[in-house]
């Protein structure tokens, strides 16, 4: 069994200070050993028809479904998720085992 | 400048044979040298409230924005995108420079 990703696409409410949330998320993730890696990004092409208003992507990688479950059910995640969700106008979350169809060159 | 990702979240129309589209996508990507890597996955937790009906994620990684642009404007991509988009009930596309907030252990 390979890696599992927890992916969030979000649109923040107006007036939200994204840097503060990012700081909180980075701090949380750094404390949680079951999170293998964490990357994020902000849409640059701004094609409203395609992004549907979503502006940011947050992607957490886990070594297994067990690690994902242990993260999701952790009280620190629950505490942060409450604050985070309250800052969002829209969100989509998808959890999926990663299938590597074209590996990065070594 | 680091990597750039082209991320698609989709919900397929009823009756679509996903394997056929995946085969086409994998073939396309394997022919396009500017695509550094390609991974995909299917949601496993099925939390409708969070997934909003989206079921699959497709993620292409490029070494630079120039490579992404060259891929997006390539006629082979345009040809495939037409077929692909016609198979979708819903889609969100986000293009973003990757910020690594917690790197995977070496």
From TrEMBL, chains A, B:
The lineage of its organism: Eukaryota, Viridiplantae, Streptophyta, Embryophyta, Tracheophyta. Gene3D superfamilies: 3.30.70.100. Pfam families: Dabb. This is Stress-response A/B barrel domain-containing protein. It comes from the Eukaryota. PROSITE patterns: S_R_A_B_BARREL. Homodimer. InterPro entries: Dabb, Dimeric_a/b-barrel, HS1/DABB1-like. Residues 4-96 form the Stress-response A/B barrel domain. The gene is gb16416.
